[in-house]
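Extended Data, panel c. Modelled sequence:
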Amino acid sequence: MAFRFNWPEFDSEFYGEARSQLEAALNKGNKPKNIVDHISVTELNMGTTAPDLEILEIGELSTDKFRGIFKLTYCGDAYIVIQTKVQANPMHAKESDLPRHTRPSVLAADQPLVVPMLLRISDLKLRGIVVLVVSKTKGITLVFKNDPLESILVSSTFDSVTSVRSFLQREIENQLRNLFQEDLPV
């Protein structure tokens, strides 16, 4: 059995709250060492296409608890744009145990080069099996039984540098896979 969502135009209050929660999550914990500033969500759009959900199994249905297994498919036009500053000089080493006069130096080549970066994640394609549990006492738990990420498009300020573009694409795909498999089950 499958059903369709009514996918409305989300209001500015929803987007404001979602941006705030995403920023808090992105700035929580340890960031990669090259990110040297606060990460801001500058754009967030849920798109015009709703995900498709197919009910595979209803395991439990009561007034206190619901447990269901669904097949989720998403191939829509949602996107997010984030902004931060990155340390872009690969020669820059933040810490060294050596005294300054004994370290190799190439005419200030080891000085920091902090540049702004815009990063856009779009063209998200997901296909996965989801277990959803809603409990009055324990809240909501959502777990992907498989890796749902089929593909995404990552574009940034550094798209003209092929190696950086490839690195960012790979790194963000890995982070999203980790999010879906390990961090999301809450």
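The chain has a mean pLDDT of 84. This feature is highlighted in the accompanying rendering.
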